């Protein structure tokens, strides 16, 4: 310990200065660690903290019954139609929706290949809802925009696809062609921004629009937006305080629907994006491309996942359906040779078998890859070794989540498959939500939150 006896005024002043700095640093470290721990217990964006899709250290329900209310904490109706996932900060749960008196709120779910657009017409209200996480009571609702939709949607899509993002201070909401909005958590609009027409559709069908679905991502003071469409695709960063554009990087890309991911290590951060012509990584601060690779499906809709200090990217449509596992040190064009499954920067890959809509779940040592058709494959996440394959025999759009040693997969028909995590398949339960389910669930505390076509439902063991 330092001796503060006044032997020398200069020494005493120096010692006091050193103690002051030390206490400040200890306080800073404590606050930083607390903030990190706090963030990891929130569900701040698509697939939760760091888009990982799971929550540690909690106890979640295995079985429930919506009809008898067994393990149903609450159930709240949300008007309109929206596929955005619930996001949660402390006791606030946020969802978005779009509704109209003339809106066709029906969904054509299941396995089909039609490229049809929905017949929405008339003026629509694009809204944000804040619910009390513990009671389900609506705390506030805000009308972000009212008007005839500026772009169409697929028959399995909605006009509120994008999941909001929050950092505990700001709530960022993207309604595609209807704009980008930033609120505080009490619902005060801080700023809004018109991003122009965002109307992605199949790359080989001019004039067909399926709706924007890539969600905003918050990292520090940056809001990251990926807008890949038939023309003028780009990746952009905006300042969260005022919405001013920081950078915009053009992408030679067709339409995509995946949400970007963040990889940060040793002071360097990159934005990871999916794509058909090129997947890749970009510098957070400048938008400069770091690496790229081609060889994906032609309608990428999944989010890259960071785990095991690796980057996992999958997609599927058309000729290709790969899974790639990329080292974050990748530089330049790392595209695989036609006859290869690995190279200097790709640790393992498969050429066919990746998912079209569902972001893979990496939980513990295993990667769970669920296809639209219900084909579930469990891989060793580090080596690519297949542990099992099982067909769940239903159609799936929502991505899987995990907690308490259990993996949850929600079918479009509204059945939640609860599977024991690990290298062997074991179905623990199959719970019916009695409603169409297109959105990926959320987790907070010991509670699971499901967004169905008409409700938000909180599930918790009693």
Write the layout of secondary structure elements.
Layout: H1 9-40, E1 54-55, E2 72-77, E3 87-89, E4 92-99, E5 124-132, E6 138-147, E7 165-166, E8 170-174, E9 180-184, E10 189-193, E11 217-219, E12 222-227, E13 233-239, E14 245-251, E15 261-265, E16 268-273, E17 279-283, E18 289-293, E19 305-307, E20 310-314, E21 323-326, E22 332-333, E23 346-350, E24 361-363, E25 366-370, E26 375-380, E27 386-391, E28 401-403, E29 406-410, E30 415-420, E31 427-432, E32 442-444, E33 447-451, E34 455-459
Parallel strand pairs: 1-28, 18-22
Antiparallel strand pairs: 2-34, 3-4, 4-5, 5-6, 7-8, 8-9, 9-10, 11-12, 12-13, 13-14, 15-16, 16-17, 17-18, 19-20, 20-21, 21-23, 24-25, 25-26, 26-27, 28-29, 29-30, 30-31, 32-33, 33-34
Report on the structure:
The protein has one helix at residues 9-40; strands at residues 54-55, 72-77, 87-89, 92-99, 124-132, 138-147, 165-166, 170-174, 180-184, 189-193, 217-219, 222-227, 233-239, 245-251, 261-265, 268-273, 279-283, 289-293, 305-307, 310-314, 323-326, 332-333, 346-350, 361-363, 366-370, 375-380, 386-391, 401-403, 406-410, 415-420, 427-432, 442-444, 447-451, 455-459. With 462 residues, the protein is mainly β. It has one domain (44-459): Methylamine Dehydrogenase, Chain H, CATH 2.130.10.10. Strands 1-28-29-30-31 form a 5-stranded mixed β-sheet, with no helix packed on it. A hairpin with a 3-residue loop joins β33 and β34.
Average of the residue pLDDT scores: 91
Count of distinct strands: 34
Helix content: under 10%
Main sheet characteristics: 5 strands, mixed
Count every helix, treating DSSP H or I runs of 4 or more residues as helices: 1
Percent range for β-strand residues: 35-45%
CATH class: Mainly Beta
Strands of the widest sheet, in order across it, are 1-28-29-30-31
CATH architecture: 7 Propeller
CATH topology: Methylamine Dehydrogenase, Chain H
Supply the number of structural domains. Answer: 1
The structure class reads mainly beta
The first-to-last residue Cα distance is 51 Å
The residue ranges in which pLDDT falls below 50 over 5 or more consecutive positions are 1-7, 14-37
Radius of gyration: 23 Å
* Fourth-level CATH superfamily: YVTN repeat-like/Quinoprotein amine dehydrogenase
Envelope shape: globular
């Amino acid at each position: 310990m330092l001796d503060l006896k006044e032997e020398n005024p200069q020494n005493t002043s120096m010692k006091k200065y050193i103690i002051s700095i030390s206490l400040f640093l200890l306080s800073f470290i404590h606050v930083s660690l607390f903030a990190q721990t706090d963030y990891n217990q929130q569900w701040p964006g698509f697939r939760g903290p760091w888009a990982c899709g799971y929550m540690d250290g909690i106890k979640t329900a295995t079985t429930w019954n919506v009809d008898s209310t067994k393990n149903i904490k609450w159930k709240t109706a949300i008007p309109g139609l929206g596929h955005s996932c619930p996001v949660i900060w402390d006791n606030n749960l946020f969802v978005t929706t779009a509704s109209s008196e003339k809106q066709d709120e029906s969904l054509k779910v299941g396995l089909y290949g039609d490229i049809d657009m929905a017949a929405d017409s008339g003026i629509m209200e694009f809204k944000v809802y804040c619910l009390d996480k513990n009671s389900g009571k609506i705390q506030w609702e805000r009308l972000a925009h009212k008007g005839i939709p500026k772009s169409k949607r697929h028959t399995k899509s909605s006009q509120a696809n994008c999941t909001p993002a929050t950092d505990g201070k700001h709530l960022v909401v993207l309604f595609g062609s209807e704009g980008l909005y930033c609120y505080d958590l009490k619902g005060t609009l801080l700023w809004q921004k018109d991003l122009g027409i965002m109307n992605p559709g199949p790359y080989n069908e001019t004039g067909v629009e399926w709706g924007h679905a890539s969600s905003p991502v918050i990292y520090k003071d940056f809001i990251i937006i990926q807008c890949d469409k038939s023309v003028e695709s780009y990746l952009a960063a905006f300042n969260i305080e005022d919405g001013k554009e920081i950078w915009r990087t053009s992408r030679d890309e067709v339409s995509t629907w995946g949400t970007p991911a963040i990889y940060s290590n040793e002071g360097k951060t990159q934005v990871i994006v999916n794509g058909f012509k090129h997947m890749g990584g970009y510098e957070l601060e400048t938008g400069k491309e770091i690496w790229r690779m081609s060889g994906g499906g032609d309608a990428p809709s999944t989010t890259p996942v960071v785990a095991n200090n690796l980057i996992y990217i999958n997609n599927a449509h058309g000729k290709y359906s790969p899974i790639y596992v990329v080292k974050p040190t990748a530089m330049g064009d790392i595209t695989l040779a036609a006859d290869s499954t690995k190279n200097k920067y790709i640790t393992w890959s498969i050429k066919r078998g990746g998912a079209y809509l569902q972001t893979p779940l990496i939980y513990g040592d295993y990667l769970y890859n669920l296809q639209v058709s219900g084909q579930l494959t469990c891989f060793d996440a580090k080596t690519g070794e297949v542990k099992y394959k099982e067909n769940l025999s239903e159609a799936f759009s929502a991505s899987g989540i995990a907690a308490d040693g259990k993996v949850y997969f929600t079918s479009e028909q509204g059945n939640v498959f609860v599977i024991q995590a690990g290298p062997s398949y074991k179905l623990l339960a199959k719970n019916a939500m009695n409603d169409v389910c297109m959105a990926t669930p959320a987790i907070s505390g010991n509670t699971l939150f499901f967004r169905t076509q008409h409700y938000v439902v909180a599930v918790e063991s009693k």
